[in-house]
Amino acid sequence: MSYTHPEYLVETSWVAEHLNDPNIRIIESDEDPLLYAIGHIPGAAQVDWFTTLQHPLRRDFVTKEQFEGVASKLGITNDTMVIFYGDKSNWFACYALWLFQYYGHQNVKIMNGGRIKWEQEKRALVKDVPVFKETIYKAKEADRSIRAFREDVFKQIDAKKPMVDVRSPKEYSGEMLHMPNYPQEGATRGGHIPGAVSIPWAQAVNEADATFKTAEELKALYEGKNIKNDGEIIAYCRIGERSSLTWFVLKYLLGYPTVKNYDGSWTEWGNLVDAPIEK
Hints:
By secondary structure, the chain is of the alpha/beta class. Helix content is about 30%, strand content about 10%. The protein has helices at about 10-15, 35-40, 65-75, 90-100, 115-120, 150-160, 170-175, 215-225, 240-255, 265-270, and strands at about 10, 25-30, 45, 80-85, 110, 165, 195-200, 230-235, 260. α2 links the parallel β2 and β3 (about 45).
């Protein structure tokens, strides 16, 4: 059994062989933005999940027009293949890929294993920041079919449709409001959305090198919790980054047809007046 859409995943060896391809743009997106300055893949640009992709005033992404500006400054055309990688098993790489897809860029891939695997293989890292010839990028209207809003979650609860809570077990139980070893902040209530099953994101990757588990292992993991390849599925975490990894796994590696990432996640739901919570 192979991944349903293996074309959305590339290996480190493939990236190393295509560093000078003018039709490819490599993007590093990390939880820790300082990593890029320490050393990055030759030719890679930095896209910070917060300063680059978030709207400066609203709790939302950059607008379509702002996204066009970001892509244009990165020298990306509508035909450019964009390869994402980063730290934390590619959390924010998947988040950035998801946002590119939200605005209609389909030619996207994740580098399997991210920074961890690249470093383990002792491949080249550089500190120089590339400069690109600016393009005129044209984004599509936002694709709401891959993004869940709170009203979608309420409907999902009422219809008893599947949801995946990808946070740590103690976040799911309500003992913590954030991951272990992080400040416990961001929500006034702990717990999980009623009906959501707990499948922590980390169960989808190999701890040794941050690569994704096999299709057989992933299928067993999700179907074992009754998350099957039919109907609409919503994944969520605390701010939408860990759940973007699960969204990528379900949509592309397993080929589930309708998967949405709820980026409001627990920082919205745990603060939302009159929203139901289970512990």
